[in-house]
Design goal:
Elements: H1 3-10, E1 24-31, E2 37-44, H2 49-55, E3 60-61, E4 64-65, H3 69-84, E5 89-97, E6 102-109, H4 113-126, E7 132-139, E8 144-151, H5 153-160, H6 164-167, E9 174-181, E10 185-188, E11 194-195, E12 201-207, H7 208-212, E13 220-224
Parallel strand pairs: 1-9
Antiparallel strand pairs: 1-2, 2-6, 3-4, 5-6, 7-8, 8-13, 9-12, 10-13, 11-12
Length: 226
């Protein structure tokens, strides 16, 4: 998933333009050897919670309408309802912490490719032009997990259309992915990824600006021990 896909899935993009540059987008995938797994997607605005709390008291800021907590919760609930109807997806849950401004959506998938279908359908419903091609796959026979990612010029083009004050929001913002496995990891193809001491988790962290500018690629092929 890309940055815009996270925003739409968690339905908190309405807050981003009025925040400071301190926020995190976190993707966690836990893969089981049988090909099933769990996903938790998080937007963490806690580093900006004082400013967010102040903004939430206003009707609009810099021309952006400020949604109420009730509206944000309603949209989060609608996202959960949509996911519950998606093929191959079960155990959908969400959390919303309006003290620290952290929102999550989690679910279980029958096959990791189910994530690709959700992303495609959400973008189509919202009539959003994809800013990259991104997909996940897992080969049970070879025990190989793959994340394929290809940035397009659309990302940077759309970003450059923003006003300077809105671009500044992304300075210091980060994207983190964590992939966990039942079996030890024997190799990874992305040199920017880090293997845990247990060898059962792979983490990748990047500034969102580097992703927008195409300076870093999140593609990775992770080989597990057989």
């Amino acid at each position: 998933m890309n940055l815009k896909q996270f925003y739409k899935l968690l339905l908190l993009i309405v807050l981003i333009p009025i925040l400071s540059s301190c926020f995190e987008v976190i993707e966690e995938i836990t893969m089981r050897n049988d090909g099933t797994g769990d996903v938790v997607l998080t937007i963490n605005l806690s580093q900006s919670k004082t400013k967010v709390a102040s903004v939430m008291l206003l009707d609009s800021v810099q021309g952006y309408k400020v949604p109420s907590k009730q509206k944000i919760q309603q949209e989060l609930n609608e996202a959960v309802a949509y996911l519950k109807k998606s093929p191959g997806i079960t155990n959908v849950k969400s959390t919303s912490d309006f003290n620290n401004y952290i929102a999550t959506i989690g679910f279980t998938f029958k096959d990791v490719s189910n994530i690709n279908n959700i992303t495609k359908n959400i973008l189509a419903q919202q009539k959003i032009k994809a800013t990259n091609t991104s997909s996940y796959s897992y080969n049970k026979a070879t025990k190989t997990f793959s994340r394929k990612y290809q940035a397009t010029n659309t990302t940077k083009t759309e970003f450059n259309k923003l006003k300077s004050k809105d671009k500044a929001v992304f300075n210091g913002a980060t994207y983190t992915s964590v992939y966990r496995f039942e079996s030890p990891v024997t190799s990874t193809t992305n040199p920017a990824s880090n293997l845990s001491k247990s060898k059962k988790a792979v983490m990748f962290k990047s500034s969102i600006m580097d992703l927008i500018n195409g300076k870093i690629n999140v593609s990775n092929q992770i080989q597990l021990s057989k």
